[in-house]
Design goal:
- The protein has 285 residues and is α+β, with helices and mostly antiparallel strands.
- It has nine helices and nine strands.
- It has two domains: 90 residues, 2-Layer Sandwich (Phosphorylase Kinase, domain 1), CATH 3.30.200; 172 residues.
- The strands form three sheets. A five-stranded antiparallel beta sheet has the order 1-2-3-5-4, with helices on one face. The protein has a two-stranded antiparallel sheet with strand order 6-8. Strands 7-9 form a two-stranded antiparallel sheet.
- The mean pLDDT is 93.
Length: 285
């Protein structure tokens, strides 16, 4: 394993040498990877295998692996009624001499291409059937039973973190207590769903989260396209109009309006307006 991939320094797999990692995947799963199909992201890799499946490989530091383990994609294989790739097998190993783990999961190929990047700049062509399957999948997910806790951005979500994030919008000390915790994907964005056939993938961070987290996250990733953001709100209004959904809307707005936000991000102004409106609703209610 490459000694340059140390836990002590930031690592970006888009630029690091990864041949040793891919060799380990091939040995662990007894398959050959089509390296011409390799997709490189900051902390994950993906490629097609010689048996017509897909592997996703992720690197994670020990301090980003909670006591519940690190097998979200494997655990998601048990979810009923959710349109997702079928999981086949997985493997994990420690990077020699470092506090870093690698994990690979092998699944079916996606039925269609990802809708786009995580945050869209133009409206995608999505059929009514797509939205119906999207809604059925999110509704089915919320009805599952799990002890897993969601880890958005690899951080386990908790009441304290939610309150810290949204109290900037509730200066009078409004109640930020979450009432309903339901299973959520926890990384719902346009890069993790396919079209024209709907499929939801990248399940490594799913688990219990406040009602409305997924809907609010997708809404936030749609704000550069007002009609799309409004469609998301309309489709998931049951979640977003709930009290916890309003808290999650503020939670997402807090991320968009972070101090290091790019000043030209087109989501800033609609996020400010929505945060003000939702905060007023919560303080009135």
């Amino acid at each position: 394993m490459s000694s340059s991939l140390s836990a002590s320094v930031p690592v970006d797999l888009r630029v690091e040498p990864v041949d040793d990692v891919l060799d380990e995947v091939e040995r662990a799963l007894q398959t050959q990877l089509d390296r011409g199909t390799l997709v490189r992201k900051r902390r994950s890799l993906g490629a097609r295998t010689d048996r017509g499946t897909w592997v996703r490989v992720e690197r994670r530091r020990f301090d980003k692996i909670s006591s519940q383990g690190w097998n979200g994609t494997e655990c998601a294989a048990l979810l009923d009624g959710v349109a997702k790739p079928q999981w086949h097998r997985g493997a994990a190993w420690r990077q020699p001499g470092d506090a870093v783990m690698w994990r690979v999961d092998e699944t079916d190929l996606l039925p269609s291409a990802p809708v786009g990047s995580s945050v869209l700049a133009s409206e995608p062509a999505l059929s009514d059937e797509w939205w119906q399957t999207f809604n059925r999948s999110l509704d089915a997910l919320a009805e599952q039973h799990t002890r897993r806790v969601a880890t958005p951005d690899t951080v386990m979500i908790a009441q304290s973190g939610v309150a810290d994030a949204i109290h900037r919008f509730l200066p009078d000390g409004g109640d930020a207590t979450v009432k309903r915790w339901l299973p959520a994907h926890a990384d719902l964005n346009w890069a993790n769903m396919t079209a024209p056939e709907f499929c939801l993938f990248d399940w490594e961070d799913w688990g219990l989260a406040p009602q409305g987290l997924d809907a609010a996250s997708l809404w936030g990733n749609s704000l550069a396209v007002p009609a799309l953001a409004e469609r998301v709100r309309r489709e998931r209004r049951y979640d977003l109009e709930s009290r916890d959904g309003k808290l999650m809307t503020l939670f997402v707005c807090a991320k968009i309006l972070a101090p290091d936000a790019h000043p030209e991000d087109p989501r800033l102004e609609p996020a400010r307006l929505m945060a003000a409106r939702v905060a007023e609703d919560l303080q009135r209610g």
